[in-house]
Amino acid sequence: MRHAHTVEQVRAAEADLMAKLPEGTLMQRAATGLAVAISNFLGYTYGARVVLLVGSGDNGGDALYAGQKLARRGAEVTAVLLSDKAHRAGVAALVAAGGRAGSPEEVGSVAAIAAADVVVDGIVGIGGRPGLKPEALATVKVATDHQVPIVAVDMPSGVDVDTGETPAEHVQATLTVTFGTHKICHFVDPAAAACGPVHLVDIGLELPPAPVASLQAADIRDLYPVPRGESDKYSRGVLGLMAGSSQYPGAAVIATSGALAGPIGMLRYVGPGKVADAVRAAHPEIVAGEGRVQAWAIGSGLGDELDIGKVRELLDAEEPALLDADGLKVLDESGDHTDVLITPHAGELSRLLGVERGVVEAERLRHAREAAERFDVTVLLKGSTTVIATPDGQVRVNTNATAWLATAGAGDVLAGLCGSLLAAGLTPLDAGSVGAYLHAAAARLAAADGPATAMQVAGKVAEATRLLLRRDHGDPR
Ligand SMILES: NC(=O)C1=CN([C@@H]2O[C@H](COP(=O)(O)OP(=O)(O)OC[C@H]3O[C@@H](n4cnc5c(N)ncnc54)[C@H](O)[C@@H]3O)[C@@H](O)[C@H]2O)[C@@H](O)CC1
Ligand SMILES: [K+]
Predict the structure, then answer these.
(1) pLDDT exceeds 70 at position 88
(2) Is 145 annotated as a binding residue?
(3) 354 known ligand binder
(4) Could you give the ipTM of this predicted complex?
(5) Are residues 228 and 201 in the same domain?
(6) What's the CA-to-centroid distance between 188 and ligand 1, angstroms?
(7) What DSSP letter does each residue of 228-289 carry, written as one string?
(8) Final residue before a domain boundary, out of 184, 213, 242
């Protein structure tokens, strides 16, 4: 599990550690990790042309000391000081190591950036607010126009660190080097998309529990409900799936494909006779009609045939339930729904919350949290990064998606798969986050050679699961 902490938590942990260490130690640790990461990124140091964009705080200090270390190893380092309050000792250290530092005019920033092999963004870090100054933005634009890669120090300057929001122009990094722990902007879009790969440098911080986490491959191994010797088809989990309509029969076929690719032992399909025939033609192992189930997945492609009374009844029943697509229409703010997982995309969540879709997309974490609290459900907000929020305030973010997943029916596969995990006994939080991870991993396999359909994604879930459950090479569990 990767963890992301808030700025307040990081500052407190830094203060605790700094009190025990000689002054400047933490910055030296950060700068050393940053310099190594820049060297590794470039593949060489001697003769490399490095331009540092330096703001007024310690983020610029990190950049300056990393520049000093690179200059000592033969890099040609120029620091563009964007504030007259730039870290003094850092500037002196860089200059003593042979680097140059000065205002944009003094160092000829346009020519230097245009000719650089890498630009280091030390404009602002965790002390930054969105809304960079025009002078800073102008230097960033030169780098972008000349396609010079940008390594961001801690985070791309201009993003909102604790929310992942990007209300104003910001740096688009090629690589981000962060310190001590991940920050929320590294996980949550749109800011996460501005980070590039994120490299974490350990500086020895001791941190409290994190408000936001992100599953990794090893977590799938720990959480996936692998059948045991004594398991039978009932104990593995039976899912009831209510999806599809005469209007959208395909949604039922796709959602059942997703469900069967999950861990359940049996799938019961509930829907119109003709659709049930299509579903059984695609998957003869499906049982049509109601019966005992351990969880329900309701909603994909119900269209106008949504039976609101019936769905409410299932929601109020004891079994956990997943609500997707048209099924979301029955959700209200009354009742205890803590065992309900909803899987809206931004448009559906915007309708539930009565706000514009663009607002949900811009403030994904905030709206996922708000809906979880308001409707007392676990919310899985689909998107390039998927945010899963519980009513008690836990958040997980899935960052392994591929843009190829933006295809019709992919949401139906996800609903079936997450429903399957719910029926196998996972909590809504685990079912949502494990399902989203496997779904994205399957999409990566399906789209390895180009575009893939939702059915092809469903067809790769088993392989993705098998690969992820392997404890070591060649030893499937
Ligand atoms: N404190 C420490 O010992 C450590 C700090 N670290 C680095 O220090 C950074 C935090 O340093 P600071 O607390 O000095 O904060 P920043 O370097 O993020 O800068 C804050 C300064 O920028 C100004 N500012 C805020 N928003 C701005 C904007 N939009 N445009 C221009 N100026 C803006 C503020 O007024 C403040 O003076 C971390 O991100 C990390 O890079 C690391 O070296 C780890 C150890
Ligand atoms: K930065």
Answers:
(1) yes
(2) no
(3) no
(4) 0.97
(5) no
(6) 21
(7) -TT--TTTT-EEEEE---SS-HHHHHHHHHHHHTSS-SEEEEES-HHHHHHHHHH-TTPEES
(8) 213
What is the pLDDT at residue 405? 85
Tell me, yes or no, whether 474 lies in a domain. no
| Ligand nearest to the backbone CA of 152 | 2
Decide if pLDDT at 201 tops 90: yes
Q: Which residues make Cβ contacts (< 8 Å) with residue 134, sequence separation at least 6?
A: none
Q: What is the pLDDT of residues 117-159, one digit of tens each?
A: 999 999 999 999 999 999 999 999 999 999 999 999 999 999 9
Query: Is 128 annotated in some ligand binding site?
Result: yes
State the ligand closest to the CA atom of 30: 1
CA of 61 to the centre of ligand 1 (A): 9
Both 20 and 53 in a single domain? Answer: yes
Distances (CA, A) of 394 to 182, 187, 276, 338, 439: 16, 14, 38, 13, 21
Residues 204 and 241 in one domain: no
Where in the sequence is the domain holding 347, given as residue range(s)?
217-469
pTM beyond 0.90: the answer is: yes
Q: Of 213, 248, 270, which one is at a domain's C-terminal end?
A: 213
CATH number, domain of 235, equals: 3.40.1190.20
CA of 376 to the centre of ligand 2 (A): 37
Question: Is 131 flagged in the annotation as binding?
Answer: yes
Give the type of residue at 249: P
In this predicted model, what pLDDT tens digit does every residue of 300-337 receive, in sequence order? 999 998 999 999 999 989 999 999 999 999 998 887 88
Task: Specify the number of domains making up the chain.
Answer: 2
Q: Does any domain span residue 259? A: yes
Average pLDDT, the chain: 95
Tens-place pLDDT, residues 277-290: 999 999 999 999 99
> Are residues 138 and 192 part of one domain?
yes
For residue 145, tell me if it sits in a domain: yes
Ligand of minimum distance to the alpha carbon of 132: 1
- Could you count the other beta carbons within 10 Å of the beta carbon of residue 195? 27
Half-sphere exposure of 207 (CA within 13 A, CB side): 23
Ligand 2 centroid distance, CA of 394 (Å)? 27
